[in-house]
Structure formats: structure tokens, C-alpha cells
Here is the input.
Amino acid sequence: VVNFTSDNCHGVSGPILDAIARANAGSAASYGDDAATAGLASRFAALFEREVAVYPVITGSAANALALSTLVPPHGAILCHEASHILTDECGAVEMFTHGARLVGLPGREGKLWPDAVEAALARFEKGSVHHAQPAALGITNASEMGTVYRPHEIAALSKVAKANGLALHMDGARFANALAALGCSASELTWRAGIDALSFGATKNGAMAAEAVVFFDPHAARDFEYRRKKAGHLISKMRFVSAQLEAYLEGGLWLDNARIANAQAAKLGRALQGRLAFPVEANEVFARLPVATAARLREAGARFYDWTPPKDGDVLVRLVTSFATRDADVARFVEIAGTE
Amino acid sequence: VVNFTSDNCHGVSGPILDAIARANAGSAASYGDDAATAGLASRFAALFEREVAVYPVITGSAANALALSTLVPPHGAILCHEASHILTDECGAVEMFTHGARLVGLPGREGKLWPDAVEAALARFEKGSVHHAQPAALGITNASEMGTVYRPHEIAALSKVAKANGLALHMDGARFANALAALGCSASELTWRAGIDALSFGATKNGAMAAEAVVFFDPHAARDFEYRRKKAGHLISKMRFVSAQLEAYLEGGLWLDNARIANAQAAKLGRALQGRLAFPVEANEVFARLPVATAARLREAGARFYDWTPPKDGDVLVRLVTSFATRDADVARFVEIAGTE
Amino acid sequence: VVNFTSDNCHGVSGPILDAIARANAGSAASYGDDAATAGLASRFAALFEREVAVYPVITGSAANALALSTLVPPHGAILCHEASHILTDECGAVEMFTHGARLVGLPGREGKLWPDAVEAALARFEKGSVHHAQPAALGITNASEMGTVYRPHEIAALSKVAKANGLALHMDGARFANALAALGCSASELTWRAGIDALSFGATKNGAMAAEAVVFFDPHAARDFEYRRKKAGHLISKMRFVSAQLEAYLEGGLWLDNARIANAQAAKLGRALQGRLAFPVEANEVFARLPVATAARLREAGARFYDWTPPKDGDVLVRLVTSFATRDADVARFVEIAGTE
Amino acid sequence: VVNFTSDNCHGVSGPILDAIARANAGSAASYGDDAATAGLASRFAALFEREVAVYPVITGSAANALALSTLVPPHGAILCHEASHILTDECGAVEMFTHGARLVGLPGREGKLWPDAVEAALARFEKGSVHHAQPAALGITNASEMGTVYRPHEIAALSKVAKANGLALHMDGARFANALAALGCSASELTWRAGIDALSFGATKNGAMAAEAVVFFDPHAARDFEYRRKKAGHLISKMRFVSAQLEAYLEGGLWLDNARIANAQAAKLGRALQGRLAFPVEANEVFARLPVATAARLREAGARFYDWTPPKDGDVLVRLVTSFATRDADVARFVEIAGTE
Here is the structure.
């Protein structure tokens, strides 16, 4: 089976599975009071070149909703791309954890937010009026839901608008490794140096079993995050097994190696499907318009992927997601069938 | 180190770790649409001898709060023992997930609720008055927080009161295996046959890495549980690894074997500390009053455990929790030191 | 001062103020257990020609948010016009009271929702997927925020779509009297006979001091409304004074007389501003494009009104709201100045 | 009918009704942007001898729940007397508005909290542990639910404990006027000079129609209160009518005159029922043990009052609440019948 439905359909990267097994030795304090969890502070500080507050959780939805509920009051509004995961795929988790804040979806080319759209949206809010939700955060996703990547200067431009308007800037980094691998810059350049306040640092989609980390670049901004995590049932008792995943994920650059594999496979697909692409292929997602018959033939041959929109004029827009586990043969087989059109 | 602080300080049972590794083969649909998760329905149906609705989650707090929020409206009250985990150790998770329901702690000997106390509490509520939270559920913990065990007939007596007053009956089964192993009855006898409506079926404390299951004995009572789980960020993407833990936990009776080991070690401690016990030792927890000097000596020797209440009159009430990983030598060493008084 | 900013800038209709004074005689049971409140059931039953559940509250925001929270689960989505009050002017009250449901704003000509837009929006939801909020209600406003009026057959067409998709149909009737007076049909024709499930029946904007009523046309659909009202702090202790307002509002058709005055004054303004109107003038609101200089001159002369959008090309779109208290001289004076262009 | 069920069974004090009628002249900005509401700041500043932030609402439940939600985070605990209104009579409003904070009821003689009980309760919390709700506020009621009154030095003693533990101190002043009238001290002495941070200043029970004011003695502590009030549907559109009530309530000392009448009538009842009293009669509530037959005879004669607890040993504890509208003849008649035993 050639499975391009999502990167989370794939399993656990070998070194991470090994680390889980190693973490099983002996007893350890529970609820995050173990040595592995304590060690995350320095690992993430090294990675981001500054002191940070870092908290492991086990889903991206929890990471996003808990981070945003820490940054945004109940009467706040969170501006985000209209295709963003927090708006379209989390069943209102952000609304619940913030106690009623509102997500405002904005259009933006290539699946990204742009300063002009954000400024236009902000102009529509009546500042300081209790009748209206008040803009409190800007949420971006990198790599984006369309597989495109924000550059540091693009983030900095958004940050400038955000800061000028008193908004916190959150990045959903479910595919942060893919973005970073694509750009080749440092983790700090892609985050706090560009103005990011808080990051949902994803590992699950890129080889972990269930491990994400919420990172606040100003540790004081984390405020009551630990209480929020516990109150939401997201404080894992045997936390050492989550922290061990994050350790192994970072160790020796495994995370970037994994991301580079995924990105490279997507790039191959992108090259083969040139002319059919809806978005530039920059990370590990490919959006391509295929003839309906081709899509059907691929599925008959065992390929799995999502139709992104309903068929139209004989074509269908499909999403292909690659991962660290995508094999050359998978891509070759897919291209062979798709390419016969 | 002899670690009696909690059963969740211990790692993962061997067969469960193996199962996690095996689950890593190939790709699988995410978010619970995999074969292992689908198979849980029949496994739990067999275990409980009836069709049930079963949903994996990864913490006991989530299991309890999500289950109760499904059973109880925002204006509801949940009666529980004053020492119960949902009341004392979950930072108000139930209050948040129910959108403001209230936990009402009741006293009860041996850490258990008894029908008379429940009836007395219910009599204090003005039924049907909008000014007061309305009793909507009864929550019990089995094995209890004091290491004691509810018998089926005790649960049935509580259920009779609950049903007569329109209350749902929830069981926090973080240590359900220990209770079942202690009693030797069937899982159905200890749950729905005695009147339990919903169970938080714990596995983490008894050898899983992070795996619990919420079980509704009337599948219709599950109502919107799946939406609640997702909205709370508790739907794991690589769910197969959670379901694989539950599979291996049940496979060949591992769960009961593990629980029997834990219970037997607690029983040994209990026998050695006879005369100092605050509660009968029925499952895997021992509450004993030790001379303060003895407790200090034990800690110097490397033993770890919690003081349950502040020292008084030269004694301190300590809690000792055993697990599947507790070794004979741990118990022997502890007893040797403690017994020299 | 000629005040067209809003109908709620005007005071209390004479007969309602008299009724408040009369209600002051003697003592009465509090929290709605008084005779006046009890009598609302038959008054509203007579008005709507069927048994209904009716609950007084004191703001329109409370009426809307409490009604919708009764109809919609936390994972629900509420489709409404993009200009609707619940979406734009209530600071996220609906999101809070529903515990995180989502409002989805849709475009629609003349400030109204139309079946095709609703169907198109519904098609974008993935039904039964826990990842996405599930459409649970349709919310319309009559008279609309643009001063236009839904006809019974238009509501019936929306109801058909709603019912076919399992959505409840709620009507924000902050200006229900104005809509009814404009159409001349019966209250039942404009509500449940056309498919409305629940109505926020407004009185405040049309002459009451602070009185609205939430009406459920199927009394069973009210479910736990009374608990929600109390839990939100919206159960008034001296309720007789709210119910007395509603009594006097309905008595002898005062409400429709008041609405007819307001509508007639708006119609006069509309005729005078013919050619400048952004929407048909059907109830008591006029949206007109005035030269910026004219708007300034009107304000200098003491007129008050809101600019609805920022000035553009020398014109500004203003909103003029009339009420039962708008005098002929107010309109004449306004027209005199505005008409000199 | 002699009505002692509650002070909110009585109507509106004459001067307040007159003020409502006067407020009806002309148009005024809505949602609190009117002159009467603006004037409250200086009136309350004069009353309390310092700058304060003051916000009108229309129920005591809203005042309490909104004030506490401003002071307490979702993971907070609020310590209060076990008989306090916020705990027993508001259907969990505080839990909802705080998004899941917990009320912890403490015993206390004469219906009041005492420093030793508060300190003992605080000692049971594990400070800084995410597993447990963290004490964040102390809530007292003055006059208390038992009709007793906190003296300034008693409040100061509680404040000392509160401040030492980082707790905000809130006073439910539904019967603040009765307490103040009883003590004869200044409003500042009974509030901020004794350490109160926020006050629910009640007027409804003492002669207003529906008017309370939330007062923050440090205006900065009000933070996002205005957004919370709006989001909860508690911002009244024709606010001038609420503010006019508060103006008239304070004007010429009406509020204290009203309270003195109520207190004096209660004192007469208390003297007549000497020997039967459960609590000292200090404000406008009398708790007396009457023979069951006497209570029945009083009801036959038209008296209305609540049984506070079920009958026992031939006696029943009844609550008698007096108000500004209680007449000498009411008291005389009641005493005449009750006194024949």
C-alpha cells in the first residue's frame, strides 16, 4: 500500500522506538518530575539559542488550544488562515479551552497569511468596544496546511503587524521540522528572532509516537500553562515516555533527517506532477489536480490519498503527504501510474 | 531504590512494550480508524459479556472528566467520596469539561461511599429547584483511593439509590484490575451487573505506557462522547499505539496477572505492618502509621513513599503503593527496616 | 436632539411605565413564582395560537445565547448571516454559553440568509466527522440587521433546508414587532407555522425598559433552559417587574402600535432619501448613503446616527433607526436638512 | 399577607420608582454610555472615599460570578462559608463564569468565616501543585446569610490571612446596607479599609427594582470585567434605568434609611422571639425555632416564611426576613400569634 493520506498514518521512527524501550528501565517520578522531562529545558534552550519554557503534550490539538488559551482571553479573537487546522480540524478545541474566544479565518494565497490581509481584518474590528471580540493573537502554521513554507522575513512582517496591534503570535508547528528542513535556517531564525511568541512544536507527524511540545519563548508568557494542561487532562503520568520521544527526536538531528526525507519525496512527486500543482511544493505535501480516471486508477493500484475538493470538470484536487517512512518505490510506483496520462 | 510512591512511577509491562513495537509495522489509518482500535469493541464486549461503547484515551483525568461530562449537565452535581481523585487530584478537570457542574465530597469509612451517606446527601438537595445544582451522577473509585475494594453487592446497593434518584453511576477504575483481582469475580459482575453505567478502565497504572478506556455499558449513553474527546484534544492521531497497549494488556490475562502481583506485594507489606494499618489492605495500596524515625530511616535506606498526612504524636501516616514491577526484594528490604521497631 | 442611533436610545413606552408602577403593589413571590409571570404562558399561547414555553430575560444577548445553548451542543456550528447580531455584536456570548460552539457567518443579499447559501455552506461540512464542528442550528434575525424583513415563505424555505439537515431554527426577534407590523401577518405565521423552533422575542427596543422573552414553540425543546438561565445569573429576583412589562407590551396591541409608528417614521425617511438607500426600508431602519458634508451638517444640527462604514468617494453609509418615540418633527427636521442637497 | 419569605418579595422603594419615571425623559446613549451611568463613578467614589471602578448589573448572582471570574483563574479555589449564597443558591454560576474554579465551603459559627477555619483550610491545599485547585479568593457575605454582621476588625483579620496567602477578598453585599446600618461605621471602613478587594453592592433586596453594582476598590483589578459582563449578556441596553435606581438609592441616604427600617423590624421580631433564636439578630433576618403548631397557625393567619430545616422534636427552624416595606402592624400581628405559646 502506498499511503499518502497523512504523515500521521506512518509509525514511529526507529531511534524513537528504541528510546521508548530504553526509558523503561527502573522507576521514575511521575507527572513530569522525571529526569528526561527536566532535561528538555536545556535541550530546547540549546535548539532555540535562548531560555524557553517547554511543556510536552501528546496531541497537536492540545498543544494549539492550550497555548492559545494561555495567550488569549475569553473575549479575544484569533486571526488565522481560513484553511488553518485550528479553525477547520479541531472541532472547536480552541473555543472551548479559551472559554469562548473566536477564530477568524482570513484568505491568503498559497495557504499563508499576509500582512495586508491581517491589517485589513484588524481594521474591521472596533478596538476597545465591549460589543466585539478583540483581536488578541495571530495564528500561523509552518509548514502551512497547503504544504508551503513561511520564510523568516515573512513571519517578521506579520509579527510587525501583530506587535503594532498588541497581538501575540503563535505558530502551529505540527510540521515545523519540514519547514525548517526546507529553509535550512536555524530554529531561532524561524521562530522568536522573527517574532514568534509561542510554538506548538510537533514531533508526532515526523516520527514520534505521540509527542508535541509547547514552547514559550518568553518563559513568563507561559503563565498558568501548567495548570491549564493538568485541568484539561493533558498531564501524562508516565511522562518520561513522552520526553524520551522528544529527546530522541532531537538527538543527532533525527528530526531534520526525517523531515528531509519527507520533503525530498514530496519534491519528487511535485516534479513528476509539474503542471498539475495547486501550490508550490515546499515541504512534504503535494496538492495536484489529477484526472478523475487517474485518481481512480491510482486507488485501484493501492494508493491512498484524500480528495481535497469535490471533482470538477473531470479533474480532482488531491492531497499527497509524504513522511520519513515514504519509500522511493512508493513514489516511483505512484508516478508511474499517474504519469501515464 | 524501593519506590512505593505510586504505581505510575513504574514503567511498561514487557508484553505491552513488545506490542507497541509490533504495532509499528506499516501504515495505518489515523485518529482511531485503524484495525486495532476497531477490534477493541469485540475485546471489551467479550470481557464485559455485552455490547459496549469503548473509547481509548491517554490519561485517567481525561477518562473521568470526559465520561462525566457526557453523563452530567452543566447544572448537575456529582456525588463522590471526599478523598476521590476526581475531587482532589484533577485540578478541576470535571468542572471545566462539564461547563460548571459541581463535585460534592461525602465522607465514608474505608475510603468508600455508602448508601446511607448518599441518601443523606441527596436529602439536602432541593429537587427541581433552579437555584441549586441538581444531583446527576454518583462517582465511585474501585479500588478506592484508600486501597479498599467495593464488592458487587456494595455497588448494587449504591446503584439502587442512584437509580431511584435518577443519577448515573460512574466508576473510576484507574485500579480496576487490582479490584477485580482482589475479588476474583467477573468484570461484568463488578460493573454493569451491579449497576455501573460508565467505567474509566485504567491500564496505565498497571503496566501500560499511557492507555485508558472509557466504557459505556449502554452504548447509547455515550451520546456525543467522540466529539467531546476530539474537542478536548484527546483524540490521538497514531491511535493504533494506544489500542495496541489495551490489546496486549488484556491478552492472556496480563492485566490480572500484573494486578495479582501488585496486590500480593501489598498484602505482604500489610501483614508485616499489621497493627499499624489505617485501612484494610485489599488491593495494591497500604496506609500505615509509622514512627517518624522509622519513616526517616526507610528514606535514608532509599525507600520512596508519600506521607499522607502531617506527622502527629510521633507517628506519620504513609502510603505505600505496589505495582506489577514491585520485587520481592523491595518488599523484604522495606519490611526488614520497618520491622525493627 | 434628533436621535436615530438606535431604538434602544429611547425610553419606556407610557403604558409600560404605568404597568411597572402598578406592579409595585404589595409583595409577591420572587424569582418568577409570581402571578404576572405565571400568566405569561397563556398570553403567549394566545398570541402564538399554541402552547409554548416562555421565559423572560432582560437582554437580547442573553435571550439569544441562552436559547442557542439549549439547542446546540458544544461541538455544534450555528449558521447565520455575516452581519447578524449574535456574530458581530455580542462579544462571543454564544460561544461561551454553548461551551465552544461556532458561529459561521454567511453572506446574503438584503441582510438575509437564503436557502442556496445555507445549502452551499452545509455542503462544506463533513457530516459526522469528529474533526469538525457539526451544523446544529440556523439563526436568522427578523427584522434583519439591515432593516429588511423575512416573509413567512422565505422562512419556510430556510426551515425546509434546516429540517432536512437536522438543524434547529432560531429567530432573533429583537425587532420582531417591527417585522410583524410590516407584514401584517399573524405571529404564528411568522414563527412556528413557518418552521421556527425558538424565538428571542424582543420588547426592549420597542418600548420596554428591559424585557425579552425566550419562546420555545415545542415546550419539550426548552429542556434545561431554566437551569441555564439561573446559572448565567439571568433569573431576576423581582421578576414581576419584567413580566409586567411584557404584559403591558402585549396588552391592547401596544407592541404593534409602537412598531407601526417606528416603521412609518422609517418609511418617511426612506421616501425622502429615495435613491440613496442601500437596502429596502421595510421595518424601522434606514441605511442611506449621504454626502459626507450632509452628514456633518445633520450632526451640527443635533442629529445623531451611526456611520455604518467608513466614508468613500465623498459619501458615507449611515444607519438611521426610528422608534415608537420618534416624532414627526424629528423626521421632518432631518429630511429638511438632508434634502437640501 | 405578612410576607417574611425574603426581602426581594417586596417591591420598589417610592423614590426609586420615581427616579425610574424621571429617567424616562428624552433619549440617551445606550449600553451605559449615558450621563447617569457616567455619574456613578463619582457617587461611589464619594461613598467609599476613594476612586473605584463601578459597574451596574441587574442580579446579585451576576455581580458575584462576574466579580469572582475577574479575580480567580480557572484553576482557582474560592473559600467561602458553607452556607454562602454563591455556594448554595446560584446553581453553579461561579463555576461556569470562572471556567471551572471550585467553591470550597467552610464551617463557621454565626454564619461567618473565621481566620482559624480559613487557615486550617489553606493548610490542606498543596501550594503550587498543578494537581489541585489553588486558593485564589476568599468570599464573605455581609450581612451574612444567617443575618449576622461582620465587623471591620473581623474582616481585617480575614484579610490578613487572605493577603498572606495571595487571596483576593470579595464581599457579597446583597445586604450591605443592612450590615452598614447595623454597625454605623462608614462604607470605607467596612470595605477597602478592612481589606476588601471587590464588592457586590446590592440594592435590589433593599428597595431597588433590579440593580446591583460591582465595585473594585483598585480600579486596575477590574481588568477585563466590562468584556466579561457583555459576554455574559449582562450589559443592559437602556442602562440609564439601572443607574437611575442606584442614584436614587444613594440619594439622601435612602439606602440606609431603608436598611434601618428593615433592621428595626427584625430587631422587634428578635426581641419577641428571644430564647428561640438560632443566631443573633443583627441585620434584617431572624432565625427562630418555633413549635410546629405555632408555625402552622402563623401560616393559617396569612404569614409567609421559609422553614430553614426540616422539623425536629416538635420545633422547626424558620427564617423571617424583614424589609424597608415591612410594617409595624405586620410585626405586631406575627408576634401576637407567635407569642401565645
